[in-house]
Design goal:
This protein is 38% helix and 26% strand. It is of the alpha+beta class. Strands 1, 2, 3, 4, 8, 9 and 10 form a 7-stranded mixed β-sheet that branches. It has a two-stranded antiparallel ribbon with strand order 5-11. The chain is globular, with a radius of gyration of 22 Å. The termini are far apart.
């Protein structure tokens, strides 16, 4: 008959330690609130960036979708791509610092991000290339609308309404 006494107990403890470590790691992955992410950003669209492997949705803003078109002076243009290009220009060559607040329904990290201490979401809305989502940037949106900045220079459908109409996630 083989005895498992000491070996069994130590492997049990090892298993417990591994399980707890995995659970702790999963907590960081599933609940990133308060976590800071920093680095060079790759731009997916006007409200989504990537730092390393982390997909980050800029909290409080909604930018036109990549396939979305808007009009200015009676002419159609790719406002989703224009919004993306504006965000690229904002962060190009800069270190982006994000403070995670949770996750969205697509499991992207929701975060407020800044470059050189300046809130990227506020700048996107203030310059008219995104709208306030929720009430976070209502003041910036009002200013952009009054100045006819960005999207407000012409006609556009709010990204949320465009997605609903086109059954498109984002």
């Amino acid at each position: 008959m083989r005895r498992f006494g000491r070996r069994s107990r130590s492997s049990g403890i090892t298993s417990l330690v591994i399980a707890l470590a995995l659970a702790g790691g999963a907590g960081l992955v599933l609940k990133p609130s308060g976590r800071t992410l920093e680095g060079r950003a790759q731009i997916t669209d006007g409200d989504t960036i990537r730092i390393g492997e982390a997909r980050i949705r800029l909290k409080g803003i909604d930018a036109p979708e990549m396939g979305q078109r808007c009009s200015r002076s009676g002419r159609s243009y790719a406002c989703g791509e224009t919004s993306r290009r504006f965000l690229i220009d904002l962060v190009s060559g800069e270190n982006v610092r994000c403070r995670a607040t949770g996750r969205d329904r697509y499991q992207r990290i929701l975060a407020r991000c800044s470059v050189n201490g300046r809130d990227i979401g506020a700048r996107m809305v203030e310059d008219g290339w995104a709208v306030s989502y929720g009430r976070d940037y209502d003041h910036e949106e009002t200013r952009a609308r009054h100045r006819s900045a960005g999207l407000w220079e012409g006609e556009f459908e709010r990204p949320q309404d465009w997605r609903r109409q086109h059954a498109h996630g984002g």
